[in-house]
Design goal:
This is Release factor glutamine methyltransferase. By secondary structure, this protein is an alpha/beta fold. 36% of the residues lie in helices and 19% in strands. The chain is elongated.
Length: 274
């Protein structure tokens, strides 16, 4: 037994079974305690039932299951998001895409988030810019159900569409299109490591060269962007040059890439000339 009745919260966090931050999050979730309560009740002994609840969560983490899926939540751009195995876990580097979009979205503008997953990008943008008309699409009904709940939870209005990329958009045009599509190359070793083992493969890889979804989005964007509208894309650490070439090939202007906090070229984009 990993966790026995009678053990204290302090002893669990010192036991070394998990990273201390992971241990704090799991214990707090299992017992319904805040961070302050974890500190003030550090010497409280766990009952048998509490010990079993903590042990179950610790065992799942030791098997590699992501913390976000265990507790069912991850923060993104300062907002809480429900996450489950139907959607990718929102990551800090994707906040760069939100920041770039906020800088380029005109007043009362319209935007489309393609492959929305948990809705993190669309909901964050709608929260920061309540004047904007925000639409988001995904091919997965399960992902859209999660995204709708996240929009409601964070009190924002987002139009959600079930669509294979532009299929359900018709002839609509937007002031900005943003996407964090599947871009990991098929067979990449990272897909069988860490948290990625538990996340939906279809949201991670295009099962090809990593650029097929990016090609579709870039090729279709000119007829779905308003003149002067921006297309912003997240991509892999080594794909910036290829994405810039695709953007230039479709007639985008001011094509450039931006680096994340780790110094990696994580996003690229350009605008449609007026």
């Amino acid at each position: 037994m990993l966790i026995a009745a009678g053990v204290t919260l302090a002893q669990i966090q010192r036991a070394g079974l998990l990273d201390p931050v992971d241990a704090r999050i799991l214990v707090a979730h299992a017992l319904g305690l805040s961070r302050v309560q974890l500190i003030t009740q550090a010497d409280r002994a766990l009952s048998a039932d509490e010990a079993r609840r903590v042990e179950n969560l610790v065992a799942r983490r030791l098997q590699g299951e992501p913390i976000a899926y265990i507790v069912g939540e991850r923060e993104f751009f300062g907002l809480p998001f429900e996450v489950m195995p139907d959607v990718l876990i929102p990551r800090p580097e994707t906040e760069l895409l939100v920041e770039l979009a906020l800088q380029r979205l005109p007043p009362d503008g319209s935007l489309l988030d393609m492959g929305t997953g948990s809705g993190a990008i669309a909901v964050a943008l709608a929260h920061e810019r309540p004047d904007a008309t925000v639409s988001a699409l995904d091919a997965s009904a399960g992902a859209l159900a999660v995204a709708r709940r996240n929009a409601e939870r964070n009190g924002v209005q987002v139009e959600f569409l079930q669509s294979d990329w532009y299929a359900a958009v018709g002839d609509r045009r937007f002031g900005l299109i943003v996407s964090n599509p599947p871009y990991i190359v098929a067979g990449d070793s990272h897909l069988s490591q860490g948290d990625l083992r538990f996340e939906p493969a279809s949201a991670l890889t295009d099962h090809a060269d990593g650029l097929s979804a990016l090609r579709i989005i870039i090729a279709g964007a000119p007829v779905h962007l308003q003149p002067g509208g921006w297309l912003l894309l997240e991509h892999g650490y080594d794909q910036a040059a290829a994405v810039r070439e695709l953007l230039n090939g479709q007639g985008f202007s001011d094509v450039q890439s931006w680096r994340d906090l780790a110094g990696i070229e994580r996003a690229s984009g350009g605008f449609m000339p007026v």
